[in-house]
Amino acid sequence: MRPAKRLRLRFSSLQLLLLLLWAAPRPCAAGDEEDDDDDAGLPGHKDRHWSYKDMPEWASMFPNCDGHMQSPININTAAVSFSVKLEPLLLSGYDLPPEETLPLKNNGHTVLLGLPKKMTLSGGGFPQPYQAAQLHLHWGSGHTWPGSEHTVDGHRYAGEIHVVHYSSRFESFEEAASEPGGLAVLAAFLQVGMETNEPYQHILKHLSGIKEEGEETAVAGFDVAKLLPYDFDRYFRYNGSLTTPPCYQTVNWTVFNQTVRLSQEQISMLEETLQGDDDEPIQSNFRLLQDLYGRSILSSFHTLEKVHPPGGGPSEEGGDQAEPKAGGVLSSPLPDGAPRDGLDPTSGKDAEKRVGISLHTGDILAILFGSLFAATALAFLFFVHKHRRQASREQATKPAALYTLASTDEHAL
Ligand SMILES: *[C@@H]1O[C@H](CO)[C@@H](O)[C@H](O)[C@H]1NC(C)=O
Ligand SMILES: *[C@@H]1O[C@H](CO)[C@@H](O)[C@H](O)[C@H]1NC(C)=O
Ligand SMILES: *[C@@H]1O[C@H](CO)[C@@H](O)[C@H](O)[C@H]1NC(C)=O
Ligand SMILES: [Zn+2]
Questions:
Q1: Segment Disordered: which positions (predicted)?
Q2: Domain containing 168: what range?
Q3: Which end of the chain has the least Cβ crowding within 10 Å, N or C?
């Protein structure tokens, strides 16, 4: 009895709480919480009480949080190493029928969607497949306070999705969570875009129904892969940890290079709907960056920086270049994304040079056309202004409506 109970207490405040409670044969979390007070001396007694406000204290209750393989990290794209072993990721069983409902819960730290283990992750250089357990999101608190956990070249994105899997070598998530190589998490950045991301509505439309901590609802099955970028070929890989207590250093991280776009309304819904402890809104639920301590980061693709000599261009170039692909991405049918430049190690360098050159030419053209446009616009404004003054002098006696019309047009300029 004891060991089983201790195990449950240890996990009881993870983001993964819900999952474990379902998986456990015994019912009723409330009963356990009462027992909790009797077991004041047990490790993990205070598990439920961690918060993003006391990150510096996590390690005092969860020693792993002080380890040297912690997450999240900044990904310095100039320092990653290309690896041929990192083949495209393969997701199967992700397209769930609507009859199969999934539990969606506000666990006080995030919104968490429970996933069936028939959803699997393979390829990607993994020696054996991983099975899905849950997905959840991290976000910020408004325009100027983005909330992704990882950063790329120091850039923090609006939010981040984590799809958590555990190795099929283990019977259950809880068994795998503390074992080396036990977990694999797919991470993708959320960015503000122009259009509503329909797949994300499967989750977002339910948030108002689970405002309070602990509330749960059922969501009809949908194609969960549509929450991810469509480019499964380009990603970063490193060894890290859970980003919440108990910070187990058992996560094989995959961070997509392509981002996912949500409308500003959708990002705001995420930032403003859920409440955690003390009815405070759940905001900025991301952990601060952790030291690499000499770990290496691999990439499945050649990063542009490798080709440019130092100082050969701002690192944003690569990012900008990737953005248009991310544009109306999610409306396009899933994966099989055409092979990308740079994936083939032999032709890679040349391909990148071409990209580099075309970006350069693009910049010059942009400046040329920009100047041309500005000059034309100025000339036109000047013409309108002159004409207006002349007209108003000549037509002072005509009805005012004419003038109003003209001024509305001018506003539209
Ligand atoms: C993570 O996956 C890679 C394959 O890319 C594998 O070689 C490595 O051993 C895994 N890491 C751990 C800690 O299991
Ligand atoms: C992660 O750890 C495993 C096992 O220690 C190792 O084989 C692998 O190379 C590491 N992966 C990276 C990206 O450093
Ligand atoms: C994608 O990779 C390029 C380097 O090739 C980098 O400049 C860009 O910031 C990366 N974006 C993300 C989201 O990883
Ligand atoms: Zn997470």
A1: 304-350
A2: 52-299
A3: N
Distance (angstroms) between ligand 1 centre and the Cα of 252 equals 6
318 close to ligand 3 (CB < 6 Angstrom): yes
pLDDT at 255 over 70: yes
Domain count, the chain: 1
Question: Which is more confident, 108 or 24?
Answer: 108
Distance of CA 333 to the CA centre of its chain: 20
Q: What is the 3-class SS of the chain, one letter each residue? A: CHHHHHHHHHHCCCCCHHHHHHHCCCCCHHHHHHHHHHCCCCCCCCHHHCCHHHHHHHHHHCHHHHCCCCCCCEECHHHCEECCCCCCEEEECCECCCCCCEEEEECCCCEEEECCCCCEEEECCCCCCEEEEEEEEEECCCCCCCCCCCEECCEECCEEEEEEEEECCCCCHHHHCCCCCCEEEEEEEEEEECCCCHHHHHHHCCHHHHCCCCCEEEECCCEHHHHCCCCCCCEEEEEECCCCCCCCCCEEEEEECCCEEEEHHHHHHHHHCCECHHHCECCCCCCCCCCCCCCCCEECCCCHHHCCCCCCCCCHHHHHHHHHHHCCHHHCCCCCCCCCCCCCCCCHHHHHHHHHHHHHHHHHHHHHHHHHHHHHHHHHHHHHHHHHHHHHHHCCCCCHHHHHHHHHHHHHC
Q: Is residue 131 part of a domain?
A: yes
CATH number of the domain bearing residue 57: 3.10.200.10
Mean pLDDT for the chain overall: 75
Enumerate the active-site residues. 109
Name the token pair of 40: 């004041």
The whole-model pTM stands at 0.69
Cα(326)–Cα(338) distance, rounded to whole angstroms?
14
The answer to whether position 22 is within a domain reads no
Question: Does the beta carbon of 253 sit less than 6 angstroms from any atom of ligand 2?
Answer: no
Does the Cβ of 152 fall within 6 Å of ligand 3? yes
CB proximity list for 24: less than 8 A, separation 6 or greater = 8
Structural domain includes residue 304:
no
Is 100 a member of any domain?
yes
Instruction: Using the atom order of ligand 3, give the atom closest to the CA of residue 302.
Output: 5
State pLDDT tens for residues 141-151.
Answer: 987 899 999 99
Ligand 1 pocket test: which of 167, 252, 295 has the largest number of ligand atoms within 8 Å of its C-beta?
252
Ligand 2 neighbour 404 (Cβ under 6 A): no
